[in-house]
Amino acid sequence: MRVAALAGGVGGAKLAYGLARLLSPDALSVIVNTGDDVELFGLSISPDLDTVCYTLAGLANEETGWGQRDETWQAFSAVERLGGPAWFHLGDRDLGTHLERTRRLANGEPLSAITRDFCRAWGVRHPVFPMTDQAVRTRVMTVELGELSFQSYFVEQQCRPRVTGFRFEGVEASRPAPGVLEALGQADCIVVCPSNPWVSIDPILAIPGIRQAVAAKPVVAVSPIIGGKTVKGPAAKMYAELGIEPSASAVARHYRPWLTGFILDQVDNGLVNEIASWGIITKATDTLMTSLDQRERLAKEVIAFCEIIAERN
Amino acid sequence: MRVAALAGGVGGAKLAYGLARLLSPDALSVIVNTGDDVELFGLSISPDLDTVCYTLAGLANEETGWGQRDETWQAFSAVERLGGPAWFHLGDRDLGTHLERTRRLANGEPLSAITRDFCRAWGVRHPVFPMTDQAVRTRVMTVELGELSFQSYFVEQQCRPRVTGFRFEGVEASRPAPGVLEALGQADCIVVCPSNPWVSIDPILAIPGIRQAVAAKPVVAVSPIIGGKTVKGPAAKMYAELGIEPSASAVARHYRPWLTGFILDQVDNGLVNEIASWGIITKATDTLMTSLDQRERLAKEVIAFCEIIAERN
């Protein structure tokens, strides 16, 4: 079973970690959203890419959901002393990643090549791809503040403004990063991790060529919404503000045109029949990943489900 | 006695510190070389400016001569793990300075305004000016490697290549930073700190308007060369490679067209008559500043000498 996983930040990284414990490096690749990348203090920051890589490397800070564990904060204490903006905190070790990435990008190297080298240095053996080497930036349209960059919405405004829509700036001119279409083409099944459909998965699918490559394969998605809520992040709030009742059904409907199989949490067992009625093979299980073992257990169920789905196709 | 001091890095910062202990903030301003500023990892770094400000603030690392004391190195350990270039080490706290300066420069704020705010945050009460708000970059011509940026010569190559000359890129289009000409004009005496004449003082003098403003005043220079050697840095090596015997005399000759008074170390007492014969009032004393008290003692002698010089003019 060869799997290509699409992932955003924390939830996606957790499932990717579980999958990486069970699948060999030639049987799993992870394609990561870079729509929430941001340039701050002159540095090129790729939050989702780093969360996935740090998580796979065992370096992630499990408490915050971003940055590295055992982190120190000397640089940003100094920034604060100077009256600098404190809303986007970067740890000292994490800064090392951004410094070296920024240096290599300025040298003209593509993000995908830099990510491959960083993964090697961190001991990440499974291929991790940014969705694209071009700059694609998720813009969030809001009632209160108009259009915001994703990080301004997410970190600075703490997701408070009500969203009216999204835009992926630069997406028309972007191409899938080298290796992405090959990874999708070689996969027996695509796994859409429990990431935010609007701002983690949609940007990946918006890269010209990716949606078609995904739609050509059996696809299993795991719902990031459990009992109408998200474990982390604003996906449920976004659905509500866009006039859609937040639920696992809403997620399945979001992906419906190309979705083959859907995994939702057991608390949402009552939604299985509705989703199945759309021709989507649906399975309810415990989808919470609050421990490393739970990540592996869910990954095991996802792989078993992929095998069933792939066989039927 | 109002003093405007011209300074480069460590030696200049030490005398500036001594002067600042004796003169009130309205009686001392420090004009600092920015020719060795460098852009690395996307960050705008001003080594001499930071050395002077950190020293005046009591934050300087006295052992290394650069960066902050009680520094940590998490970010650059991370850069090294990623295989990044390790020749220019930046501490975590020091990074905070570069991050916030880079952010504000990118916002279009001038370096002089940023420096003023940083000084306020660090508790530096005496005005510190970058020589200019424009980018002026010292380029070092070498036998072995051709033209190098100053930091590439100084840090990466550790001053090993033999120099054949210097060039201050961008200097023609530069202007003195706001406040610099006023500080020079209001001074009773200009003090040229014991900094490298070639790469710390010459760049300041090369900014259009500064040399004339300096030459219009009594000027006292303190020799950075003691017994034919420098306490720190490549000034003596540079003189030798340019075919000039390194000595306090060579420094006085360097500044001769506009120099009024010269302070050299007591070990160079034998050179006093030669320099005096050029019409420069010359004084030998202990110029080593290996303790905070010695900085203040030398500063006291410099101020007393300035008073004599200024009275005669």
Could you characterize the architecture of this molecule?
- 2 copies of one chain form a homodimer.
- Chain A has 313 residues and is α/β, with parallel strands linked by helices.
- Chain A has 2 domains: 3-60 and 123-132 and 172-312, Rossmann fold (3-Layer(aba) Sandwich), CATH 3.40.50.10680; 137-167, no CATH class.
- Chain A has 13 helices and 14 strands.
- In chain A, helix 1 (10-22) runs parallel beside helix 2.
- Chain A is globular, with a radius of gyration of 19 Å.
- Content of β-strand of chain A: 15-25%
List the chains of the largest interface with their residue counts: A-B, 34 and 34 residues
Strand order of the largest sheet of chain A: 5-2-1-9-10-13-14
- What general form of chain A does the structure show? globular
CATH superfamily of the largest domain in chain A: CofD-like domains
| CATH topology value of the largest domain in chain A | Rossmann fold
Helix content of chain A: 40-55%
The first-level CATH class of the largest domain in chain A is given as Alpha Beta
The domain tally of chain A reads 2
Biggest sheet record of chain A: 7 strands, parallel
What are the secondary-structure elements of chain A, in order, as H or E? Answer: EHEEEHHHHEEEHEHEHHEEEHHEHEH
Mean pLDDT level of chain A: 95
- Derived structural class of chain A: alpha/beta
CA-based gyration radius of chain A = 19 Å
